[in-house]
Design brief:
Layout (H helix, E strand, L loop, with lengths): L2 H21 L4 H12 L3 H23 L4 H21 L6 H32 L7 H21 L5 H21 L18 H35 L7 H26 L1 H21 L3 H29 L5 H29 L3 H34 L1
């Protein structure tokens, strides 16, 4: 495999993540203040629009757990790219809330294709071509997507109305689709032979269930900030008009963090890296509660961007290595839990914000869930250790 070909494959994967996750999902975050100002949307509607997007994401994850045919995965991955563009553009052509719900749901389906099918297909390609089975480069596309949506939001907010802004995001996605499609390898040639599963089925099942629960907690920590960070910043008098900058900083922190977490994991171990990432994510939430100064919110966004992306990258890479013959399936099982969190948490926090007039109690609830996640993560580690001891004894 020539280095230039490897670079093209990795670039295509990253660009696809920017389209299907960065734009299809994250363009909504800087659009919240624009739509609220123009249309007077309530916090509950804002939260529900995020919820249906994650419902689509969850549905996609469920579908992927049922798919083992590599050719079908590849075709659905390509379809996800097209759907990401169309569902984004059409958001600007209606003010019907129910049509928005449908479009955000469809967008969520494309995001699951980009995240899960994309990660699984790339993992198979890396293993097939004797590259390190790490997904840090792949998940850097999430951070880059955040950066892109933040920059575009700032460039177009004064010259375009809210509906035109959605169309602009869609056109940017269309332009990016071209290199992602052209440089994409034929993943159908990357099928790997099935391997014997280490440890008993009961032990592996317990390990995966615990990992799913820990990932659910991480999903709550991720989605509350991802959905409301810009709105929280804009609600602070000192940060009015600076929400886009807070979002940009989160993306700038996330983009290189994936590689840094890979390096940290190699040196200190994946479990210590995950403990640290969970802890840092919790700290970023706490900072939004206890200090509303511009410096504190900016630092919180840096820590948030660097930590959530590390959790996603390391968790999915871990199960991908455990199940190399079909990595998308266990990734989807974890993402099913993550998707439930992403579906429920924005609606709950949005409701609390409507009732109480602030996001404070919703953030406290999120912080408690993240603390529980650290405990469950430790239980998952112990389950994996017992699994290893069982294999050695056998």
């Amino acid at each position: 495999m020539k280095p230039i070909e490897t670079i093209k494959v990795l670039a295509a994967s990253v660009i696809a993540v920017v389209v299907m996750v960065g734009i299809a999902r994250f363009s909504y975050t800087p659009m919240i203040p624009e739509m609220v100002a123009a249309l007077g949307l309530s916090k509950s509607v804002v939260g529900m629009l995020a919820t249906v997007n994650y419902a689509g994401y969850l549905t996609g994850a469920l579908i992927i757990t049922r798919i083992s045919d590599l050719g079908l995965k590849f075709r659905l991955y390509q379809l996800g790219l097209v759907v990401a563009v169309i569902s984004t553009v059409l958001m600007g052509y209606t003010t019907n809330v129910w049509l928005w719900f449908i479009l955000r749901f469809i967008s969520g389906l494309s995001t699951s294709a980009g995240m899960l099918l994309g990660a699984g297909l790339l993992m198979s390609w890396l293993i097939k071509h004797n590259h390190k089975s790490e997904l840090g480069v792949f998940f850097s596309g999430i951070g880059l997507g955040i950066v892109l949506t933040a920059v575009v939001a700032q460039l177009i907010k004064d010259d375009f109305t809210w509906d035109q802004q959605w169309v602009v995001y869609g056109l940017v996605a269309l332009v990016l689709l071209v290199p992602a499609w052209r440089w994409m390898p034929d993943y159908r040639t990357c099928a790997l032979p099935k391997t014997g599963a280490a440890g008993t089925g009961e032990e592996r099942s317990r390990f995966i269930r615990l990992l799913q629960l820990a990932y659910f907690c991480a999903g709550v920590g991720y989605v509350v900030t991802a959905t409301f960070l810009v709105a929280i910043a804009e609600a602070m008098p000192k940060l009015s008009g600076q929400g886009w900058l807070v979002w940009l900083i989160a993306g700038l922190a996330a983009a290189p963090a994936c590689w840094l977490w890979d390096l940290f994991s190699r040196r200190w171990g994946q479990w210590l890296a995950l403990y640290l990432a969970y802890t840092l994510n919790s700290v970023s939430i706490l900072m939004l509660i206890v200090n509303t100064s511009m410096a504190s919110v900016m630092l919180s966004s840096v820590i948030y961007g660097a930590s959530f992306i590390g959790i996603v990258s390391m968790m999915l890479a871990m199960v991908g290595r455990v199940f190399p013959e079909n990595p998308s399936r266990p990734m989807s099982r974890l993402t099913f839990s993550y998707g439930i969190a992403q579906m429920l948490a924005p609606a709950v926090v949005g409701y609390l914000a409507d009732v109480e007039g602030s996001y404070t109690n919703g953030l406290w609830l999120t912080l408690i869930v993240m603390a529980m996640g650290v405990v469950v993560l430790h239980l998952a580690r112990r389950a994996q250790q017992r699994q290893g001891e069982s294999v050695a004894a056998g």
